[in-house]
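Re: duplicated header lines in exported structure tokens

Our pipeline writes sequence and tokens for each protein into one text file. With two proteins the header for the second block appears twice in some exports. Here is an export where it did not happen, for reference. First protein block:
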Amino acid sequence: MRHFLSLKDYTKDEILELIKGAVNIKKEPRKLLVDKRLAMIFEKNSTRTRMAFELAITELGGKALFLSANDLQLSRGEPIKDTARVIGSMVDFVMLRVNKHETLLEFAKYSKAPVINALSDLYHPTQVLGDLLTIQEYKKEGKIAFVGDTNNMCNSWLIAASILGYELSVAYPENYKIAPEILDIVKENAKKSGAKIEFYNDKTKAIKGKDVVITDTWVSMGQESEKEKKLKDFKDFMIDKQAMSFANQGAILLHCLPAYRGYEVSEEIFEEHSEVIFNEAVNRLYVVKSLLCFLSSIKC
């Protein structure tokens, strides 16, 4: 049994297989998981994640069960391992969107069903799968910039790029750092894949010569108390027309949404790239379908 907690647990070939499966299931929808059951546990609210997972299992012929934190005895102090042993014995998959990555690790340790990370404070791997599918569709693979906070999206992209052998430049303020454990993984992966990973405190240096520019909200859910500080720290990191002018001609912009125009991205640039961004959002559906099939050892 395999879990899907981070891309670091998957090989280059497996990641490419997941993208290939998403391409296939997008072209030829099929009911490959008839009567399979997916439990969806949300500690954090969601639009795209819930839509993608619920539609994915439903269109594959299965059933979804939505559980908010308030629906579970976890909110009254039941140990995670007890909840995992019950839910993991009654369904075929468990998807969690959680505040702390440790919750996922504990749940996965005791669950009899595959556990999927739909977002934690450390990683957001299903979003990066959707990004990879979008990049492939727009034929922009290879040279990528990530501009923004050193958050779960940044970590997941560092892991993905280092495994796949991509050229990735990351830009963030001087007083922000990539976690040492993430850097260790990335360096080790890059030695094997030949990936070129660079870090800057200047967005234009990171964006120069790239085919894909990725950004994300500066104030993640649960960090509202840090908003004033974050806006000050990141004031020079907005993706606007001038910033995009440093990218290669025809470069695309990705954003996992929700987007806060006037902060991490300008209104003008967001709307200019809105078709790509909303295709990126919809592609979450297809990579989730592919992932569910993969975890069931079924080829899409």
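Second protein block, exported in the same file:
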Amino acid sequence: MELQVSISKKLTSGNSNEFSLDAEFKCRNEMIVLFGPTGAGKTLTLDCIAGLENPDAGYIRVNNTVYFDSEKNINISPQKRKVGYLFQNYALFPHLTVEENIMFGMRSRNNIKELEKMLNLFEIHGLERRYPSQLSGGQRQRVALARALITQPQILLLDEPFSAIDHITRVRLRRDLKKIRQMIEIPIVLITHNPVEAYTMADTLVVYRHGGIEQIGSPKEIFTKPKSMNVARLVGMNNIFKGNVLDTREDEIVIQSQEKITAPGVPDLKIGEDVTWCIRPDHVMVLREGRSLGKAVAENIFSGKITEIVSKGATYLLFIDGDFNLEIEMPAHVFERLCLEAGRTIKVSLKKSAIHIIREC
């Protein structure tokens, strides 16, 4: 299967504020994640794919089936589009049982074989006679997924499927969904504004910003090589600085910022050019006193005083003021081994290969 989307749509609210959506992407049998802040147009995109909203222009195709094409005047009704849609609130019918909810979209309500398949796949045997109000959040989500998949859709749309459940259930359901992803060979489009979900769930990541798409790529590419300051902030690359190119060499450049730093070479970058450079908090290395430095970390060494420490459970955030004001994230066991505390002055290494250059437009 292949999903192709190229659409535009304008919305005007009562106070004349206009919102414009322009979205273009395609995917095969993979998990594509639409990632970005609330109000960027992600849900509107899903609604257009499902036929709940009509684009002003463009096309939506699934393999050889055209769902929408403004030039050819094609607009298939939602009922005829083979789309499974898991809404953010799951949209289960409160007056129907689990079995009745799952079978709702089937032409034949007596297809026990398909029902059994879904009950086994989502491990919800024994819940068939219960009503949604009698289920936990995780159970309701699995029932909603079963209902979306029992009709054997060509594509599956998931609108923030993990937003209304607790952390433990969320982690389990992420794993379950990735297993299902291996079992069903259809495009899956998932919406999230959670960076962890974006990184762990996506085969391809589509970054939205107020109605437009800023970057498309693999999670690793986008989280380490964002194309703009906005994308950098969205993916948690919070150490962002301005600078000016002092020197260019074959495989590296020297940038004058608060201090001089060495970064990987960038093609066609010229001396005197203004750039933005950034590094992820988890790529800043705290150096242990009295230890000899390996070649990889014996570069871009700076010092600063720890001004704040924030525990996140498995990791710690450190904020330092000094040559550069930096945010550092490290595993809890490393933090405890280093015996770090607020007010202490430390040395850090900004590994050259971890520095990313964003060119000023």
